[in-house]
């Protein structure tokens, strides 16, 4: 008989941790007549732990999966609507300058704040961090509604800078939950489930401008588009407050999320740098981080926003985010494939990214080299592509744009999985997520600025493709040699002030004492034998 448990580390959100649950034991008889004891962890009393079943699977409010669903819905409402708006090209405006300048400001502040946001999330807790982060999306959408009437360029740029601060906090809190709440054998699926719900927000959000602008072939999107986005982002910011505090979360196996018992600003900023100094080779992943949002500029503005008319941009946008859902499902489940060791899966995913990078972007080059230049698309007599053009003129680039969406999901899912595979520590996960989003935003800021400087479309395409290929080359040693089949419990605990007893209760402590090197065959889940 075995019992599995895994560990993570997070800041105490100033709430008492869950009281240790008392396990119940029952004896069952197998088909061969042997007897074995099955230990079922008993959840603490209270409404947060009262189970309910959905499609045969039991949930409870303070379970990791239910909390993931909540944070996914927040991102469905907030970043999902932002993605839907950005995917229209120019924030739905004819002139892209306002969004270019706002995006440069956004990603500049995002890069600075996100780099340190792991410490902020560990100190304040994910609930407050996530909710405050959601408010920035509300103000950003409102600025474009205002711009539709008064062309207040300054307000849009300010909203972009503010959103950079808020988004840095939101995405760090989200990444912490997604990477540290699940057990090791479930991380790919948790990432996949989040990506599905998050991108459903972008898909549904894209249907709003598609419906509003279905008969519109020129000009900015309507006010109704912005109002719809505004309402949904506001709901998302409020929904974040419904997350439960980390100390109350309990997994199916009875294990809990480890928290720093007494976090302070000093300990958390110190932990930020310990994340690097304890594993300096992690910087080899930074080019992948840097490249991970750069392709949005070319895809949304230089391809979709420049070569297609208003209603066709809206359709392309919907298909792009829909393709991301399929990408997340395929890649996320493949990363959790139980038939291969985790180290083997890491190598396989890396090879897959190389193939996708050269196949999809190679197809993109074949299309881009024959397209109108930036100067030509700005001329009054330029006629953008409409979906009724069909054939090679529209159907080909439509599928290319969908493959770009699939590629985005594959790239982002793999990066999150690589980070989650390096540590189960939630405290370290928060810092890695902050590094990821900060460096990612620095890359995005550079490419939005290049677009704002009106660099040729071919240059934007070539720079993006070259960066993606180079990033994979630099990251290869980490993916190939540093991702192990499991992370030992002792290694995770080094980054916190918790003990084995705090993590897994009495049984876990006993198992650790009697079998200190017990590591299960399934993705490193610790086994008490």
Q: Can you put this structure into words, describing what you see?
A:
With 529 residues, this protein is mainly alpha-helical. It contains 18 helices and eight strands. The protein has helices at 64-77, 79-86, 97-124, 126-150, 153-180, 187-212, 223-239, 265-277, 286-291, 295-307, 310-335, 342-368, 374-377, 391-422, 426-452, 457-481, 489-493, 500-514, and strands spanning 3-5, 8-11, 24-29, 35-40, 52-54, 57-59, 257-260, 526-528. A two-stranded antiparallel sheet has the order 1-8. Helix 3 runs antiparallel to helix 4 (126-150). The protein is globular, with a radius of gyration of 24 Å. The protein starts with a strand and ends with a strand. Residues 1-23 and 505-529 have low confidence and may be disordered. It comes from Pseudoneurospora amorphoporcata. One of its GO terms (molecular function) is transmembrane transporter activity. Keywords: Membrane, Transmembrane, Transmembrane helix.
